[in-house]
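thoughts on both lines:
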Amino acid sequence: MKAVKIVGQEKIEVVETPVPEVGPNDALVRLKATALCRSDLYRYHGTTCFDDDSANTNFTPGHEPCGIVEKVGDKVTNVKPGDRVGLFMFVGCGECEYCLRGDEMLCKQFGCIGFQRDGAHADYIVLPGANCLKIPDEMSFVAASLLTDVGGGLYTACRNLDVKGGKYVVIVGAGPMGCGGVMMAKAFGGKVIIVDVDSGRLDFARGIGADYAINPKEEDVEKRVLEITHGRGADIAIECTGNEVGANTALNVVRPLGRVGIIGENSSCTFDPSAQVIHKRLTILGCWVFNKNDWGEIVDFVLENNVPIEKLATHKYGIEDAEEAYRVFDSHGAQKVVFVWDE
């Protein structure tokens, strides 16, 4: 089979490698669509993610996949060959309280495909059968792939932040996560304000449903949000940039008793807890992916509300063009880049 390997800093190779073996609890999945994520670029640039450096070279990245079950181990009962599935990226111990509730990413022993183990930028992948999440025939493989991270994560963030009709939602950052947030917040009924310094990305966000767009290079974000919200401030803000300016913007634009969701990965941030949080009595939520057991709920929501999640896939490539795909994604010239295989 063909598999992408990161063999050095900003060096991609597509190699022939054996199809992985299936254990008794495993499923072999033939990939049909798998997206690139900003976190894939950590390894691409020679840095680390999840505080792990065990797979710096000669590993297969990719953690947003879906495909068709090809083979299952003797102990797998939830899926069978021929099933269309999305794949949950995290593998835990399977026994702790977090694994049992579907939050494997919180397990002390968790591993993520594409980081601690070979990922999905390949023709096939082996994962525990429990990580296979069925997708209905009416959902495309590309859409399902985008739900395994961006879509599922932003659905969960909007639900947990209580986005609903009439509420003003500021989304900071109009990259893939932010634009996924635009789609989900609109489907929940929110009035969406998108903030970004890239005019092209703001135009894209408008095209998928954002009600207002603010470029901090051109106008004062806090002042403009107050104008839009008739002096109250936003009810909810979702931070998707992963930088200090974005985080502070999210904290500053919400009204007293508002809610802020933090999605953008960031190892350091300075803010004023008293003025920005305590005295406004804000609720701040860490938002990371989704609970595996919510998959059916997420898929139903997208289908019932006609969420155009597939529009995020602005660039599609075959696996043999991985070098170009990574280069384009790294240039910020795309929203989501997705590897696809013919039906």
